[in-house]
Amino acid sequence: MGGVRGLAAPFVVPGPSGVAVRDRLKHLTAEDERVLRAVGEHQGTHASRDLKVRCAQGLQHSADTWAVRKRELTKVSSSRIAGTITKASHDQWALARRGQAAHIRSLEDGIRTLKHRLSLPIRAKGTKRAAGGYRSKGEWFRKSRRLKDLEARHTAAVADWRTGRVRVVRGGKRLLNTRHHLAAAGLTEERWRERWEAERWFLAADGESGKRFGNETIRVTPDGRVSIKLPAPLAHLANTRHGRYTLASTVAFDHRGTEWADRIQSNRAVAYRIHLNTARGRWYLTASWQRPLVQTVPWEAARAGGVIGVDTNADHFAAYHLDQHGNPVGEPHRFPYDLSGTAHHRDAQIRHALTRLLHWAQQTGVTGIGIEDLDFTAEKTREKHGRRKKFRQLISGIPTAKLKARLVSMAAEQGLVVIAVDPAYTSKWGGQHWQKPLTTPRRKMSRHDAAGIAIGRRALGHPIRRRTAPPPHDRRDRAGHRTAQAAPGAQEREGSRPPATDHAPGGVPPSGTRKRQPSAPKTVRDAPRTHQWVQHPLLDTGRERSPQET
Questions:
Q1: For residue 277, what are the CA distances in angstroms to 274, 284, 285?
Q2: What number is the average pLDDT over the span 388-401?
Q3: Most confident region among 6-10, 148-152, 183-187 by mean pLDDT
Q4: Using 50, 70 and 90 to split pLDDT, how confident is the model at 294?
Q5: Rounded to whole angstroms, how far apart are CA atoms 473 and 171?
Q6: Is residue 219 within 8 Å of residue 213, measured between CB atoms?
Q7: Phi-psi region of 507 (alpha: psi -120 to 50; beta: other; left: phi over 0)
């Protein structure tokens, strides 16, 4: 069926619920690194065993089985370390379950598309909403075989889902597969083994409220001294009392350091994680804590000072400033980024572009940022787009999940509110209603800039069209003003242009009783007699001289 699909209402995105900061552990001694490797390897071995037990339990997990696993781990470590390991196993199993559910939905989308296209005649034309038939009998046959393969994979995945069976690799499936392609990855077997073991270590501790400095296992003092509570089998490595080992390195969190110091001095929970970057040979300490749930700013308050409409593209953000009535203000802004290269490079590019966007938003004085609630899950399947590999790579390269998480976190620090809107028809309607009217010789409006206006108007609660339909009686505003973006009492309200006779100066009778003033002279014959036209001695053209000059 045709027509416009229903649009979801805009909503204010909740702020971040957690914070994480990182600092490097510098000037570690050889003994420090030996102890960290021993503790990480010891706890990593027990974490792998516990995860295996948790995955084997599947849906049969309960509080009793959890207590049994924790008691077994306490014998070889400590109760706090055992609690951290078992909780990490639960989180990893839950993450695998969510990935399994997403995989099943992807298979169902592919099966649905294949069945639709196989039911159509050969070379049948498609529509904007659905693809057509296949182009040859050979392609039809190959796709029919692929349909059987997807159905078999879907049946196996659903069976695993019902029994609670998941497949998890500690250290990462990608790194595991890299072992078979060392030459392509530029690694030797020894370097890969070192990286594999480092990824499987377990050097983490959950925070505890009320305990000294918020953590008893990995403790960081206000002056940056780091100490670790060693497991029972490694207690002989301690260099301080109570089975603790104090590192020679100190940390100082430059980012959010004041907030971190306030938490540890009040003995509020702070979780820590120590990991080794084998490529650089550096050790890092990551501190994280939860933030209290803050009441979300009402949507009416978020749009009171206007918004910035942001259109997300493959290589830039297209942003436009809109006032509270939905009127574009100033010029469009573009914030480019490059999503090629490694994941760290892409993340840095996104953070840099978002930083520039938020700084400009603060300069404009807005209170909210409107952005599309993008989700390309259904768009990435090869069955929907067929041979359009570049398009699939394009939408797969846009980091929608990381982008939203980054934007929400960074906007909260700047005191800005993020408003998510339905992405349907924003580019189409924006280009239709805003691209041409705002294009001038000095302003080049792209379709993405117009989409930013459409997103901003939708975030404000206004329709994308600049004006609603005319009044029902006639073209005169007898039934009320037909603009859709301003209240009747708002200043600079868009309306029909008043007649020229209404622009009379003070003391002039109202319109209808006076005549239009004569326009300025356009020819030499109409010029006043006080002006004389004389020939310039050095030019062939004439210029006007006043009586004072003559």
A1: 10, 8, 11
A2: 61
A3: 148-152
A4: low
A5: 71
A6: yes
A7: left
Amino acid at 333: H
Asked whether 272 and 21 are in contact (CB, 8 A), the reply is no
Is pLDDT at 83 greater than 90 in this prediction? yes
Both tokens of 303, joined, read 């749009």
pLDDT tens per residue across span 416-466: 888 888 888 888 889 888 988 888 888 889 999 999 999 999 999 888 886
Residue with tokens 């009778």, as numbered in its chain? 509
CB atoms within 10 A of CB 4: 8
> CB count, 10 Å around CB of 253?
18
- Per-residue model confidence (pLDDT) at position 214: 92
Task: Choose among 336, 295, 294, 341: nearest CA to 319.
Answer: 336
Average pLDDT over residues 325-352: 86
For residues 441 and 421, give the distance between their C-alpha atoms in angstroms, rounded to a whole number: 32
pLDDT tens digits, residue range 183-227?
999 999 999 999 999 999 999 999 999 899 999 999 999 999 999
Q: CB burial class (10 A; 0-12, 13-18, 19+) of residue 255?
A: exposed
Strands 282-290 and 368-372: unpaired
Residue written as token pair 């159509």:
120
Query: Whole-angstrom Cα distance, residue 161 to residue 58?
Result: 10
Q: Is 290 helix (H, G, I), strand (E, B) or coil?
A: strand
DSSP 314: S
Cβ atoms of 249 and 27 closer than 8 Å: yes
Question: Going by C-beta distance under 8 Å and a sequence separation of 6 or more, which residues neighbour residue 244?
Answer: 219, 227, 228, 229, 230, 238
Torsion from C-alpha of 385, 391, 395, 396, nearest 10 degrees: 80
Tokens of 292: 């209290």
**Separation between Cα atoms, residue 417 and residue 408, nearest integer Å:** 8
Torsion angle of the four alpha carbons 454, 456, 458, 460, in this order, in degrees rounded to the nearest 10: -150
pLDDT at 1: 40
CA–CA dist 76, 79 (Å, integer) = 9
Tokens 């404009």 -> residue: 364
CB 419 within 8 A of CB 459: yes
As a dihedral over the C-alpha atoms of residue 421, residue 422, residue 428, residue 429, rounded to 10 degrees, the angle is -60
Distance CA 206, CA 78 (A): 13
Distance (Å, whole) CA 323 – CA 305: 7
Distant-in-sequence, close-in-space partners of 135: CB < 8 Å, separation ≥ 6: 122, 123
